[in-house]
Amino acid sequence: MVLINKAINEVTVKLVYYGPGLCGKTTNLEKVYANPKLENKGKMISMSTETDRTLFFDFMPMELGTIGGQKVRVQLYTVPGQVFYDATRKLVLRGADGVVFVADSQASMRESNVDSLQNLKTNLRLNRIDPEKVALVFQYNKRDLPNTDSVDDMTAYLEPGPAPVIEAAAINGVGVTATLRAAVGRILDNLKNHVDTTLAEEPELTAPDMSAKAGATSASAGTPKLSMREGAPRPSPAGRPAVEVPPAAFAQPAPVPVAAFESVFAPAAPPLEEDPFGAAPVIDPPVAVAEPFAAAAPADTAAERAGIESLLANTRAIVAALESALEHARENERALRQRLSEL
């Protein structure tokens, strides 16, 4: 969901990298962040768990100029690929304006890709986001490895439809920038065309069952980093209630009023070009750069403060979910060890 901050004359959009475990989501963000030409960026925040990491940072691509007089800030997120952290994936997707689905091109990962894509569509609907309208880009990653499916085969089983498809080898930086440019371009196209991605008929997202897999299978986690006994029951220790995430942490944010949205993107401002990363000037002030992430003047203090406060609020919500999941896992571990000692 687009955030409009008129106090600092800024529009913030959210882009989430999604996909099965170990597909290259984290590598994509690290390569983007390490780009020396991307200077106008915030700090990368990493929240590590026992099986995966959630990363995010924001940046302001100055070559975009402004939209309706508003500067554009882009927030980039990754989600944990492991099945165990499906609750965290739901939370990170909340309010997303665009998604990059990172598919692992290895033939052995076909089932994981399909399961993760289905899980993405399910979680988007749970967040009242229409999977058919949200800005979606497919990245076929790990094209540099042997035993990969052909692009045609991957397209046949993933069925990206009109969504752009980018071939990549993220570990080498190949296709990373092209993927980001395509995703931000689709988000801005939705803004220009006033595309409403909200599924109003869907119920509000409530606190999920931290033990549920929500339609994903064990294959969608990729190669596990933590060994757990498959099929073992998940009892809670006697006298201790199951850990639950407070529903407030998953409350759906209030939608932006239509009037406010239209006032920001009023037709009085010159329209954006078809290619938002083009070198021609867009809107005041005209900016022409050869590279899409050329160096730009640092953001003012008020803008930086507002961006940090927004990231801090998201961080606290995600940390709460991760801590609850971790506590539940520890209780599970204690219960399983107790059963093992009794055998």
What does this structure look like?
The chain has 343 residues and is an alpha/beta fold. The protein has one domain (3-229, 240-342): Rossmann fold. The chain is built from 7 helices and 9 strands, in the order ββαββββαβαβαβααα. The protein has helices spanning 25-34, 86-93, 110-126, 151-158, 176-192, 258-264, 301-342, and strands at 3-5, 10-18, 45-48, 53-59, 66-67, 70-78, 98-104, 135-141, 165-167. Strands 1, 2, 3, 4, 5, 6, 7, 8 and 9 form a 9-stranded mixed sheet that branches. β7 (98-104), α3 (110-126) and β8 form a beta-alpha-beta unit. α2 packs antiparallel against α7. The longest helix has 42 residues, at 301-342. It is globular. Mean pLDDT is 74; it is low at 212-276 and 278-297.
Characteristics:
single chain, 343 residues, alpha/beta, Rossmann fold, 9-stranded mixed sheet
Structural class of the secondary elements? alpha/beta
The Rg value, from CA coordinates, equals 21 Å
Average of pLDDT: 74
CATH superfamily: P-loop containing nucleotide triphosphate hydrolases
| Element pattern in H and E | EEHEEEEHEHEHEHHH
Overall CATH class: Alpha Beta
Share in β-strands: 5-15%
Profile the largest sheet. 9 strands, mixed
CATH hierarchy: architecture: 3-Layer(aba) Sandwich
